Amino acid sequence: MTQANPMKKKKKKDGKLAIFTKGIIKENPVFVFLLGMCPALAVTSTMETGLGMGILVIFVLTLSNIVVSLLSRFIPDEVRIPAYIVVIATFVTIVRMLTEAFAYELFLSLGIFIPLIVVNCLIMSRATSFASKNNVLNSAIDGLGMAIGFGLALGLIGFVREIFSTGAISLGVYLPLGFEVSIINTEMYLFNMDVFAGPAGGFLVIGILLAMFTAKGNYDKHKQEEARQAWIEQKKKEAAERKRKKAMESAGDAA
Amino acid sequence: MISPTVFFVAIVSSMLINNVVLMRFLGVCPFLGVSKKTESALGMSAAVLFVMVVSSAITYIVYYFVLDPLNITYISTIAFILVIASLVQLVEIFIKKFSKKLYKGLGIYLPLITTNCAILGVVEGNILENFADQHGLWGGLAVATTSALGAALGFGLIMFAFSSIRERLDSAEVPPAWKGVPVSLVVAGIMALAFLGLGGIV
Q1: 3-state class (DSSP) for residue A169
Q2: Which residues in chain B (92-111) have CB-CB distances under 8 A to chain A?
Q3: Which residue positions in chain A have pLDDT lower than 50?
Q4: ipTM field
């Protein structure tokens, strides 16, 4: 208990902005916590489908976090998970109908993965670990930040896969962006590899991106450790200096 | 009468060609999370096998005998997830009551299954495949259940193979940045490449 308390105090001190931004990079759900891997692999063969999935998750996660944090006081602990699942499933059904009405291309390309947002571990884990313990505003901000982090991660994976598999990025195919379909070509089309559009490419790209993120984390940790060591060395040196001075002074006094 | 080849094709296609994990990306979370030891991978696969087969039979009946006549198929997702959640709870109670040994083996995996996307994915896939139109109402039920059995066997096969590889990866020398999940994902990618070769058999 004593170990848990300072953590709690620290969390409360964080402002709203910190709650919002932590999901985007520091606690990115895909690259740090490995939550929601199924959609991250399945719907990222192009950048737009990945971003589209992210947008749907933004809706579902923010709304479900709000409702869960409102209801958490009234839900008994034994039926917590089924109750949360029903809340999430309701929002997923709403979002599914809206997607079918307003973004039919996206609806077709995401297919079975729209109903599967219900069992996305990210949403369940935010409901149980954050929304059920925090107030409504903080839960909404947390949901928004986490979902944006999720969407950006999916967009990044989709970007890499689309560039490698077709050599171009297409805009306006799946998302109703309000302009004509435009395709941005790169020189990469000379070397396009179809395998990156398929299942194997999904695993490979996420594996390589994860390794890059881990390497960055390791490097940061290494830098931190070096800085800490340097700081300790400096403190030691200062202490030795002080000791020497003191010894000199006392020697002078004795003389 | 449905010919036996239909069942054979359903099993082979859902087990090997459209493998749940490597081709349809369903159940990747347990695939990465519970595959550190062969023993736990097999326990998880057994629990998935049971829940997947029974829940696809029940949801098929719920869809075609309750939701479809009432014209409320749009709430199918909510209905299915409720069926799966309550089924998992029921199975847990039954196993706890009748077999302490089995409960010890499967108990910890059962709560994880509710949020396993392989179950909901296969169940929704059964409805999308329209087995009822192809084989009649009851024939569709048989084919859907067989297909779910194949999918669960495919899941078990991949879990077993992947956990065996992972146990050996533990003792391999891997660069620090690739340790753990990144290298496993690359291994899974190579496995998916191998399974790509099975496409087009049926």
Answers
A1: strand
A2: 111
A3: 1-11
A4: 0.84
